[in-house]
């Protein structure tokens, strides 16, 4: 009797559950256009680039499948190895210097003084100009005989420099342009972080007699560190793929002294018309950007974990 009693509710429940037929989601008509755009604009170009990187393909010649031969060629290509070194040094300087000067400018402009808003507007003007216009102006300023930079050096008794016309000074000179243009961006990001800091820690430090450096070192800097990481990641991604400033000023010269991966990629693909090898460089270049971004994210998490551990101790 008990078996029948237990089986009856189960059978009744099965009979009560209506048979549901599968129906396509009603939101598909709205999703399909977005999927088509993503596939056409992002997925297909990268799949096609990877396919081209496995071909020996020069303009006007048929494609020949070579597998990983283009990738194996990269470590033995001296110009590519040199371009990697130029890219890393250019990126490192173009990240560190704007972070330092942008943070300093943010601390200064965070203070209250007369005409602060007007001076902020003047300071952020470089990032509003187009890169090619900036390159043309700085090219004239870098001229060894007619440039204003050597004239300014002569006023303080320093010898003239060749700037972008010398292999030893071309990378620092290009970094000078990058720093001048993008320091205001870092300043704006750090200013947002400074505005979000409460005033209580500063009031306590003032009561304890802390000086300006101690306040900055132990209060301001730790609290704006997340904003510095955001600014550093934005600058890193932008600097590592920088092309317009470098190409407009030096075209990778003198010789190949300022030839970064991006400039070398342009030369291989659109000067020598070696699309297969250029595609392999593009894939490796993309992986380098992803690796650098992942490194910054790892450092950010590691620093956050260390600070939380220190607070807990």
UniProtKB/TrEMBL annotation:
Residues 84-298 form the ABC transmembrane type-1 domain. Keywords: Membrane, Transmembrane, Transmembrane helix, Transport. Gene3D superfamilies: MetI-like (1.10.3720.10). It comes from the Bacteria. InterPro entries: MetI-like (IPR000515), MetI-like_sf (IPR035906), Sugar_ABC_transporter (IPR052730). Its main location: membrane. It is a multi-pass membrane protein. Signal peptide: none annotated. The chain crosses the membrane at residues 27-47, 88-109, 121-141, 179-197, 218-237, 275-299. It is found in: Cell membrane. Pfam families: BPD_transp_1 (PF00528). Belongs to the binding-protein-dependent transport system permease family. This is Sugar ABC transporter permease. It comes from Bradyrhizobium quebecense.
């Amino acid at each position: 009797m008990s078996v029948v009693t237990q089986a009856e509710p189960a059978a009744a429940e099965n009979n009560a559950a209506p048979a549901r037929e599968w129906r396509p989601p009603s939101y598909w008509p709205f999703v399909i256009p977005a999927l088509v755009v993503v596939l056409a604009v992002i997925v297909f170009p990268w799949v096609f680039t990877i396919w081209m990187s496995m071909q020996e393909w020069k303009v006007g010649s048929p494609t020949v499948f070579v597998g990983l031969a283009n990738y194996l060629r990269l470590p033995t290509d001296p110009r590519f190895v040199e371009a990697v070194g130029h890219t890393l040094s250019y990126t490192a300087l173009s990240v560190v210097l704007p972070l330092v000067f942008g943070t300093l400018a943010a601390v200064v402009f965070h203070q209250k003084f007369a005409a602060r808003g007007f001076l902020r507007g003047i300071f952020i003007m470089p990032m509003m100009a187009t890169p090619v216009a900036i390159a043309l102006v700085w090219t004239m300023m870098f001229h060894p005989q007619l440039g204003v930079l050597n004239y300014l050096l002569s006023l303080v008794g320093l010898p003239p420099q060749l700037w972008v016309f010398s292999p030893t000074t071309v990378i620092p000179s290009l970094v000078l342009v990058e720093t001048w243009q993008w320091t205001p961006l870092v300043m704006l990001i750090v200013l947002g972080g400074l505005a979000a800091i409460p005033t209580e820690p500063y009031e306590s430090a003032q009561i304890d007699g802390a000086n300006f450096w101690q306040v900055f070192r132990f209060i301001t800097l730790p609290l704006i560190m997340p904003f510095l990481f955001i600014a550093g990641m934005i600058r890193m991604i932008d600097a590592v793929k920088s092309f317009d400033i470098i190409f407009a000023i030096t075209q990778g010269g003198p010789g190949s002294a300022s030839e970064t991966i991006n400039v070398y990629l342009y030369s291989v693909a659109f000067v020598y018309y070696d699309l297969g090898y250029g595609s392999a460089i593009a894939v490796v270049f993309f992986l380098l950007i992803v690796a650098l971004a992942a490194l910054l994210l790892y450092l950010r998490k590691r620093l956050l974990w260390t600070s939380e551990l220190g607070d807990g101790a």
